[in-house]
Amino acid sequence: GFNFYKLLQFESPLPQKYEAYPVYTPDEATFDRFLKADDEGGKVCNATFPLRAAASEKFEKYINGSQLLQDTCKEAYERYDMYDPMIEKYGFNFTNSFFIADAVLCLHENDPEDKLNMEDPADALFYLNIRKVYSQYIFQFYNNTEYLKTVQTPILNDLRLNLNQQVDIALGTAEPSTNELKYRFLSAHDSTIAQIFLNNGFFDGHCLVDEMMDGVDRHCHMSPGPSASLIFELGQQNTENQTPTRDDVEVLSRKHM
Asked: Bridge partners of 254?
């Protein structure tokens, strides 16, 4: 068997173990552009951690009773001959379900010797349920307004500022030198993108919770994949106005899963 907690090794400038928290990818250990590290020891990446911990603890008490979660974790634990002393002692829960699902997904995507066969109905169903367990962990904050607002507001405000400055330039009310930015790329965890998707109506956070609790497949949205992206594009509509106005400018958003 193997200890799945040691399965993945992540290189990161942050002096801490890997956690699925929303964060702008930093250039150095002490810098987080949007959320700001607030722990002198460097063990807490950003100011959202207390909110995340409280929300997760509350949600875990509810979701631990999911038969789908328990059965899927048990099947994965046995299929991959996993071993962890805490699971052996206390059983499966929402927290360790994420590490189990993450391990299975990474093995399937990266290990050429992975034995999952998606043409086998039993394997396909198992993999689908693993994705549901993983997605539920990523989506757990869907109903926590304070957390979502704290996570998203700095990032979305930054996007809005740049878009507004570009509109002013396009309308001739500002000089091009005020914002020479043409493209901007932000790298983040899948959990960051998921929160934006949830809070802006791309995903339905309630769907997967209902599915986890009663086992009925509702074809819910799954978590964003490794190459998922969210693109905001500024464009000018065709207009007969000789002097364009803000009504002639629109922001298009596109998601790639």
From this structure: 231
pTM, two decimal places: 0.72
For residue 75, what pLDDT is reported? 96
- Give ∠ CA 136-138-140 in degrees, rounded to 5: 65
Residue 183's contacts (CB-CB under 8 Å, 6 or more residues apart) are: none
- d(CA 82, CA 135) in angstroms, rounded, equals 21
Question: Measured between alpha carbons, how far is 112 from 100 in angstroms, rounded to an integer?
Answer: 19
Q: What are phi and psi of 121, to 5 degrees?
A: -55, -40
Is residue 156's pLDDT more than 60?
yes
4 or 70: which leads in pLDDT: 70
Alpha-carbon gap, residue 195 to 1, rounded angstroms: 35
Virtual torsion, Cα 140, 156, 188, 169, nearest 10 deg: 160
Please determine, for residue 4, whether its predicted confidence score (pLDDT) is greater than 50.
no
More confident residue, 193 or 70: 70
User: CA 82 to CA 4: how far, in whole Å?
Assistant: 7
Joined together, the tokens standing for residue 232 give 């905001």
Strand partners, 232: 253
Tokens linked to 66: 């999911």
